[in-house]
Amino acid sequence: MTSSDSGSAPKPPAKDPWDLPDVSGLVVGVLGGTGDQGRGLAYRLGRAGQKVIIGSRAADRASAAAAELGHGVEGADNAECARRSDVVIVAVPWDGHAAILTSLREELAGKLVVDCVNPLGFDKKGAYALTPEEGSAAEQAAALLPDSRVTAAFHHLSAPLLQDPAVEEIETDVMVLGEVRADTDIVQALAARIPGIRGVFAGRLRNAHQVESLVANLISVNRRYKAHAGLRVTDV
User: Fold this and answer.
1) The pTM is what?
2) Domain range list for the chain
3) So what's the pLDDT on residue 6?
4) Which residues of the chain have pLDDT under 70?
5) Are residues 136 and 209 in contact, defined by beta-carbon separation less than 8 angstroms?
6) Is residue 154 left, alpha or beta, with left meaning phi > 0 and alpha meaning psi from -120 to 50?
7) Looking at the record, which segments are called Disordered (predicted)?
8) DSSP characters for 196-223?
């Protein structure tokens, strides 16, 4: 008796978790693209052949930074950057996070938003994690952008390594969080455009606080060992 005879359809094969979509044709915007982390991500993605637009409050500042980065990277004000991009990486300072996203709610509607902001405080003992009212920066973004598809990723990458043209590969993993697999697959695929990097699914947005907070520990590692530490997930 076949499965159809018994009344049950055969199960489709399980999806290969490393079978990721082709994202080479997507336009990636980077809000906060004139800051260290934003510049580094824009440089690496542009160098990999991705179309990148960096955003800033001032279009001329963004254009000047884009010219320095090369690799076809463009500059624009934040609103234009958001409008012209398919995927928008949020790499703004934590203290301006809510205000900037609120001001761009309309431009970011329907977009895939990737939040990489780490809410941190600093005192004489070093860096420490802050806990936003919503639970994390990514959850704050999701609350402020109800018409966007919010994910979280790129928290643990070293800005100096990202910006160093002599570094060919960055040997690290990127933790990717989100609610919809199709969206996290896109972000994982974008991460994989940077040589040496893997994007690894790490849960839903409710788990973003732990990922954001871990940056405080990496700062301590880097200060003690004069390093640019990242993360690797084993056995996957």
Assistant:
1) 0.92
2) 27-225
3) 53
4) 1-8
5) yes
6) left
7) 1-20
8) TEEEEE---GGGHHHHHHHHHHHHHHHH
Superfamily of domain 27-225: NAD(P)-binding Rossmann-like Domain (3.40.50.720)
Cβ–Cβ under 8 Å, residues 195 and 111: no
Give the contacts of 59 (CB within 8 A, at least 6 positions apart).
Answer: 75, 76, 77, 80
Predicted local confidence at residue 144, as pLDDT: 98
- Cβ neighbours of residue 114 closer than 8 Å, sequence gap 6 or more: 87, 88, 89, 90, 151, 152, 153, 154, 187, 190
pLDDT for the residue 226: 97
DSSP string for 71-116: TT-EEEEHHHHHHH-SEEEE---GGGHHHHHHHTTTTTTT-EEEE-
Contact 191, 174 (CB under 8 A): yes
- Residue the block writes with tokens 């934040």: 78
What's the distance, Cα to Cα, between the start and end of the chain in Å?
38
Residue (of 123, 121, 183) closest to 151 by Cα position: 183
Q: What pLDDT, on a 0 to 100 scale, did the predictor assign at position 75?
A: 97
Task: Answer left, alpha or beta for residue 49, where phi above 0 means left and psi between -120 and 50 means alpha.
Answer: left
Give the neighbor-by-neighbor strand order of the sheet with 27-31: 74-77, 51-56, 27-31, 87-90, 112-115, 149-152, 172-178, 197-201
Q: What is the rounded CA–CA span in Å between residue 32 and residue 195? A: 23
Burial class (CB in 10 A: 0-12, 13-18, 19+), 70: exposed
Reference 141, options 82, 197, 68; nearest CA is 82
DSSP H helices, 145-207, are 159-163, 181-192
